[in-house]
Design a protein that fits this description.
A hairpin with a 4-residue loop joins strand 30 and strand 31. Residues 1-19 and 740-768 have low confidence and may be disordered. The chain is 30% helix and 26% strand. The strands form nine sheets. A five-stranded mixed β-barrel has the order 3-4-5-7-6. With 768 residues, the protein is an alpha+beta fold. It folds into six domains: 8-80, Winged helix-like DNA-binding domain superfamily/Winged helix DNA-binding domain (Arc Repressor Mutant, subunit A); 87-160, OB fold (Dihydrolipoamide Acetyltransferase, E2P); 166-234, Beta Barrel (OB fold (Dihydrolipoamide Acetyltransferase, E2P)), CATH 2.40.50; 255-501 and 565-634, no CATH class; 506-558, no CATH class; 650-764, Nucleic acid-binding proteins (OB fold (Dihydrolipoamide Acetyltransferase, E2P)), CATH 2.40.50.
Length: 768
């Protein structure tokens, strides 16, 4: 008998009959599709009978599906990604060469992938007035086959939606005859909107404006009306405002919160350990705005631990000032973390706290949470303990200053500190390095480019700061402090928020294995992979001068680190338990861990509350989302700054490397600046290029000419849109040719030949 198709109800019923078995990924995708907009983790767990400890495994499965691009996890809802729903809202944006309307999904959140284009055939239109460009319609979508590189769906219109004004953000450009145009700040909207004279709200040329799209014209371009001005971001030093407004990141504190912060007073020594005589130092970047951690080390004087070390890490006691249920706490949770731009910091806490009361300033007394850790001569931790204390930093040092002093080039400030303070720090670090090498965390070591602004606010240079041993020292001390916090809270059975990083999913490992085979590199075939196995591959790649390429591909195979009330370890650091404790000024997760320690160790009345414990799962999801929002804002701002930096070099040629491949083209990264841009597949002359996922390549259908991830190429800059941070290039290099394919002379540009063939295909499809 043919098997009856499972409905949402029968799938869930069948799942409940199984004994604690998790649903498959296909089951979950089907359930989400049936469940609509209100599907969340709780609904999935309830439908499939997932209870108790299995909920942790379900959360791991959902996170894996999100990493694979199958679903998108919001704070309360889970939705499918990649494929559009069968019924959705679309917006008609243009016409094709046959005069047919082309639409885009009204909502598309994937920044790295262009939204799919949707064909609205003549026969699909509703009866009554004809829809036009700018109209939003509810439509039923049907996927097309892979022959359409530019159009992925056809749409049947169900109904037109009311023409409600849509508010967007853009840059106003004044025109001589009155009115103006608005350039986008969204790289997916590479178009402009005209503004009539009298509807500019007094905007000046270059102003960042919020505007409404007026869709009164059916067959022409949409018009816009300025509704709000946000100042002139034309100077690069102000371009971060665009990302803040576009992503909804709050950059001003409510007056009540500022008043609450201003009323705070520094604590006294009462009920605190006195550490003011211990010569702590802070070691940070030279432009650091806050200093929330200080370090000290000395040889252990216990005869039972010869060659051992005592390390103290002091962290600003933010929990003393930011109490749960306060306005300060509400605002900190609403932000989740500080956001760092080349020209500014948007802090999680008001300056009275972040730059004053909780900044471990040189020679000033500050309240802290301190962890004292004892290590043996090979870096094994023997014990640790936490206390609330009062400390005083002896010196504020930069990484370069500390490193130079150790290397024998001490300056006036570090010379008196070299023997008594800095050398013991390095001695302890040398011991910890042994343990770190045994632990073998993932060693990607990708270069991090930094945009430097000049005094006039313009981009002066883009550099790769050197990676010093001083960086690794502070990093390792902070890791050990974070591990100690997690261990203490687990031992006291106190709930906390972990920093977790799952192992790569099987699907991503398969994709990575396939790619590495093209480089004659193989992954182990059996068993659970460990970071040290990735490290062997990375070491071999560096020897063959493909280290950066392989590091990037390995990085993409990894899951995304996040916050979680449940612990499943940190794969990248190769640690069984890990929590963020060392940066409570700029991360809300650390503040929660501080409060948990205060509660667990009975260090005061400002510890974690029962209400906070009950909300830990939701808090972890919220701050994970906000962390991704901050990363997106920082990346978008750097992209816009670099696009602005290169805007006067249209037509220039650059050496680049292929860093990403999608069905519509290639992402490339310039060797000179690290700028990222896009080469459309349709702009590459000589062939019709298709995406080969296994080889991670674009391959010519006729000749087999291919462009593969990691290829060194030459490109020419043909468009720069600074307001959107977008760069578009054309390919100058020829691709490699596959064996057995004729390396024929390229045919004329596809831009001259594909229009008719695509139109013919569409006509044939409609006739069928």
């Amino acid at each position: 008998m043919p098997r009856k198709k499972a409905t949402k109800k029968t799938r869930a019923k069948g799942a409940r009959r199984t004994s604690r078995a998790l649903p498959t990924k296909d089951d979950i995708l089907a359930f989400i599709q049936d469940g609509g907009a209100d599907t969340g983790k709780r609904e999935i767990a309830r439908a499939f009978g997932v209870k108790g400890a299995d909920r942790i495994e379900l959360k791991r499965l959902l996170r894996e599906m999100a990493d694979e691009g199958l679903i998108r996890r919001g704070r309360k809802k889970i939705t499918r990604v990649g494929d559009l729903p069968s019924v959705t809202v679309i917006e008609i944006v243009t016409r094709d060469e046959d005069g047919e309307f082309i639409a885009l999904p009204a909502r598309w959140d994937d920044e790295d992938t262009p939204p799919p284009r949707i064909l609205v055939p003549t026969r699909a239109r509703e009866t009554g007035p004809t829809p036009g460009i700018g109209d939003r319609v509810l439509a039923r979508l049907k996927p097309l086959d892979d022959d359409y590189a530019d159009v992925r769906y056809t749409a049947s219109i169900i109904k037109r939606l009311p023409r409600e004004p849509i508010r967007l953000l853009g840059i106003f450009r004044k025109l001589g005859g009155g009115g103006g145009v608005i350039d986008p700040i969204d790289r997916k909207q590479l178009r402009e909107w005209s503004v009539r004279d009298g509807e500019t709200e007094g905007a000046e040329d270059g102003d960042l404006v919020r505007f409404e799209i007026e869709k009164s014209r059916r067959y022409g371009a949409s018009r816009a009306r300025v509704v709000e001005r946000h100042g002139n971001p034309d100077a690069e030093a102000a371009i971060s405002l665009i990302a803040l407004h576009a992503l909804g990141i709050p950059d001003e504190f409510p007056e009540a919160v500022i008043e609450e912060a201003e009323a705070l007073e520094a604590p006294t020594l009462k009920n605190r350990e006195d550490l003011r005589d211990i010569p702590f130092v802070t070691i940070d970047p030279p432009d650091a705005r806050d200093h929330d951690d200080a370090v000290w080390a000395a040889p252990d004087d216990d005869p039972k631990n010869p060659g051992g070390w005592v390390v103290r890490v002091a962290i600003a006691d933010v929990a003393h000032f930011v109490r749960s249920t306060s306005g300060l706490d509400d605002e900190a949770r609403r932000r989740g973390n500080s956001v760092y731009f080349p020209d500014r910091v948007v802090p999680m806490l008001p300056e009275r706290i972040s730059s004053d009361l909780c900044s471990l300033r040189e020679s000033e007394e500050r309240a802290c949470m301190c962890v004292a850790m004892v290590f043996d001569e090979t870096g094994n931790k023997l014990s640790h303990s936490f206390s609330r204390a009062l400390m005083r930093s002896r010196a504020r040092l930069s990484y370069a200053q500390a490193q130079n002093a150790i290397d024998g080039s001490a300056d006036e400030k570090t010379a008196p500190l070299a023997d008594s303070i800095l050398k013991p720090l390095w001695g302890a670090y040398n011991a910890l390095k042994h343990a770190r090498d045994r632990r073998a965390p993932l060693d990607l070591d990708l270069p991090e480019r930094k945009v430097l602004l000049g005094p006039d606010g313009h981009v002066e240079s883009i550099v790769v700061p050197p990676r010093l041993e001083a960086h690794r020292l502070i990093e390792e001390f902070m890791i050990q402090a974070n591990v100690s916090a997690a261990e203490t809270l687990e031992a006291r059975r106190t709930p906390l928020i972990y920093r977790v990083h799952d192992a790569p999913s099987p699907e991503k490992i398969v994709a990575l294995t396939d790619f590495l085979k093209t480089l004659n590199i193989s992954l182990p075939k059996a068993g659970r992979l460990k970071p040290e196995q990735f490290n062997r591959i990375l070491a071999r790649a560096r020897q063959e001068d493909i280290g950066e390429l392989v590091s990037e591909v390995v990085l993409r195979s990894q899951a995304q680190a996040e916050y979680s009330a449940a612990n499943f370890g940190h794969f990248g650091l190769n640690l069984r338990r890990y929590a963020h404790f060392t940066s409570p000024i700029r991360r809300y997760a650390d503040l929660i861990v501080h409060r948990a320690l205060i509660r667990a160790l009975d260090l005061g009345k400002d510890g974690l509350t029962d209400a906070e414990i009950g909300a830990l799962d939701d808090t972890a999801q919220v701050i994970s989302d906000f962390e991704r929002r901050a990363i997106s804002a920082e990346r978008q701002t750097v992209d816009r700054l670099i696009a602005n930096f290169l805007a006067d070099r249209i037509g220039a040629d650059f050496a680049a490397r292929v860093t990403g491949i999608v069905r519509t083209g290639l992402f490339v990264r310039l060797a000179e600046t690290g700028a990222d841009g896009f080469v459309s597949a349709s702009s590459i002359d000589g062939d019709y290029f298709q995406h080969d996922e296994r080889r991670q390549a674009l391959v010519g259908r006729r000749t087999g000419q291919s462009f593969t991830l990691g290829d060194s190429v030459s490109v020419r800059l043909i468009e720069a849109v600074p307001s959107a941070g977008a760069l578009r290039f054309e390919m100058l290099s020829d691709g490699a040719y596959m064996p057995g394919r004729p390396s024929a002379e390229p045919k004329p540009s596809r831009r001259k030949t594909t229009g008719k063939s695509r139109a013919a295909r569409r006509r044939r499809r409609r006739s069928n």
